From TrEMBL:
Name under which the protein is recorded: FAD-dependent urate hydroxylase HpxO
Keyword terms of this UniProt record: FAD, Flavoprotein, Oxidoreductase
Keyword flag Oxidoreductase: yes
InterPro entries the UniProt entry points to: FAD-bd, FAD/NAD-bd_sf
Record keyword Oxidoreductase present: yes
Domain of life the protein comes from: Bacteria
Cofactor field: FAD
Pfam families recorded: FAD_binding_3 (PF01494), NAD_binding_8 (PF13450)
Length: 368
């Protein structure tokens, strides 16, 4: 499109920061507005799938990102006693990094004079000819302005996560262990050295008082392998969150944009974390959008239309399978729970690959 003066970005999370970096890489001016007083994040892990590497390389941060964690080569589904149900090597290694440090890395590559903290913006704050990118997350106020009836979907599950520093057996190095069974999940993911990220997913029960301390978390896993308790005990902090997304069916027929304002990342296609890909989807959004905005032969509306069409074909399967997997592995009935674990053990590798292949599709602006 014709060179635009500036792109205004609302939100300083991964979607907003990477959009600013992608625009800067493409020589496009930006202004980023973040309502919080600082750019930071909880001290948790971030999974980066292999299809994002070429993007990080183009942004000139791949090698620095690799220094923030380690590569993951192996994925293991195990039962509550650490009996292996299914193991396989990832087609290409993923990265497991410290998310707070990744945010700091992104921030360090941007121009401070174009970052506006303690600043909350709405659509009405911009002129009709100004380009606005809404990257303000799952509770996006911009989305609520444009589509007040587009509601979040509640999985009725709670996520707890943290990072532990401890010495574990070699089998846990450069690997992802996903414990399933008894209507619970617990994962241990190596982050390099003696650091391991972990998360718990449990079902919310009506009128249940959910406690966030270590003793309460360990009480859920009375019948699990002792390593679960050890990992929880070694964690400095515990961060809880509800698992929400937007059903792709609810977005069907809706434009992700309104005039000069475009919704990206969790603002329009939030996903549950079962495919460990929400942040990666946001980074792909940023990469594709900046490339399209550099295209001289497209109007802004055409850019937004191409962006939505391209991203819908990638995002919707990931959101679907993430929701589906999160429901399948949580079973109250012991017989069904045992059948699910048996099914995991017997499922051929190619079916797992088929599901995960949606994640590994590379987004490349040169093909647009």
């Amino acid at each position: 499109m014709k060179q635009i003066d500036t792109v205004n970005i609302i939100g300083g999370g991964i979607a907003g920061l990477t959009t600013a970096l992608a625009l800067k890489t493409n020589g496009i001016n930006y202004e980023l507005f973040e309502q919080s007083p600082e750019i930071t994040y909880q001290n948790v892990a971030l999974g980066i799938s292999a299809n994002i590497r070429h993007i990080l390389k183009e942004w000139d941060i791949l090698e620095e990102t690799k220094q923030l964690g380690t590569e993951i080569y192996d994925f293991h589904l195990v039962d509550n006693k650490l009996n292996y149900l299914k193991s396989f090597k990832l087609p290409k290694p993923a990265l497991s990094v410290h998310r707070r440090q990744f945010h700091k890395l992104l921030y360090s590559r941007l121009d401070a004079q174009h970052i506006h903290l303690n600043t909350q913006k709405s659509i009405g704050d911009f002129g009709e000819n100004e380009v606005v990118i809404s990257a303000d997350g799952i509770n996006s106020s911009i989305r609520q302005e444009i589509y007040p009836n587009l509601k979040l979907r509640d999985s009725n599950q709670i996520l707890f996560r943290g990072i532990s520093e401890m010495v574990l057996d070699k089998k846990f190095q450069n690997s992802y262990h996903d414990f399933v069974g008894q209507n619970l999940r617990f994962a241990i993911i190596h982050m390099g050295g003696n650091y391991y990220s972990w998360y718990v997913i449990k079902e919310k029960k009506t009128f249940e008082e959910v406690l966030f301390d270590k003793a309460a978390l360990k009480s859920y896993f009375k019948n699990y392998h002792a390593i679960v308790h050890q990992v929880i005990d070694s964690s400095e902090n515990i961060y809880p969150a509800e698992l929400l997304d937007i059903d792709p069916k609810s977005r069907r027929g809706l434009e992700w944009f309104n005039k000069n304002t475009l919704l990206i990342g969790d603002a329009i296609h939030p996903t549950t974390p079962n495919m460990a890909n929400g942040a990666c989807l946001a980074m792909e959004d940023s990469y594709l959008l900046a490339g399209l905005l550099s295209h001289e032969n497209l109007t802004l509306r055409q850019i937004f239309e191409v962006f939505q069409k391209s991203r819908t074909s990638k995002v919707n399967p990931v959101v679907f399978y993430s929701w589906w997997f999160g429901k399948v592995v949580h079973q109250n009935n012991k017989i069904i729970d045992d059948l699910v674990k048996l099914g995991m053990a017997l499922t051929p590798r190619f079916l797992f690959d088929k599901i995960y292949s949606n994640v590994l599709i590379e987004t490349n602006i040169k093909n647009r």
